[in-house]
Each structure stands twice: as structure tokens, then as C-alpha cells.
Amino acid sequence: MNWLDKFPLVLLVVLAVWMAVAPIVPEPHLIEKIRMLSQGELRRPLDIFDLCLHSAPLLLLALRLWRQYGPKAGKN
């Protein structure tokens, strides 16, 4: 995961926020797909792909922040 540690944090934050809210109108895809998932309507492969695509930068950001500021961050 050395590549993730070298990736600029500011760029990762911008990418994560952008993908989380895109498209803004009428409803962000991530919100729509999470709603569909909670209602049991997330069945089409395209919808599952959309959920993965729009949530991946957020997961990478969380992983990067965990690696940088987590409990074992200063022990390497």
C-alpha cells in the first residue's frame, strides 16, 4: 500500500467528495444507490457498478487516513 501513502491527500479528498456528490441534480448517485440497497432494489449490475464506482474514492480516503493517523501510524 505504498502507492496509497504516496498519493496526495488533497487530491484524494477532492476526488472522494466529487465522486460522492456527482451528479448533484437530481440526486447524487451514491445517495440513490445506498437508498436502493437499503430498500432491496439494488439488483442490476449497472447499479452495483455505480455503487462501487462512487464509493471507491471514499473507501480509499478512509484507508489512507487510517494508515496515516491510525493507532499504528507512527510505529513504522
Describe the 3D structure.
There is one protein chain. The chain has helices spanning 2-6, 9-21, 29-38, 45-69. 70% of the residues lie in helices and 0% in strands. The chain has 76 residues and is mostly helical. It is built from 4 helices and no strands. Helix 2 runs antiparallel to helix 4 (45-69) and helix 3 crosses helix 4 (45-69). It has one domain (2-75).
Any idea how many domains? 1
Q: What class, by secondary structure content? A: mainly alpha
Shape: elongated
Low-confidence stretches: none
Q: Over the alpha carbons, how many angstroms does the gyration radius reach?
A: 15 Å
What is the average of the pLDDT values?
87
The main sheet comes to: none
Q: How many helices does DSSP assign? A: 4
Q: How far apart are the first and last residues' alpha carbons, in Å?
A: 13 Å
* Content of β-strand: under 5%
Q: Tags for this entry?
A:
76 residues; mainly alpha; 4 helices
Quick rundown:
The protein has 76 residues and is mainly alpha-helical. Helices cover 70% and strands 0% of the residues. It has one domain (2-75).
What is the topological layout?
Elements: H1 2-6, H2 9-21, H3 29-38, H4 45-69
Helix pairs in contact: 2-4, 3-4
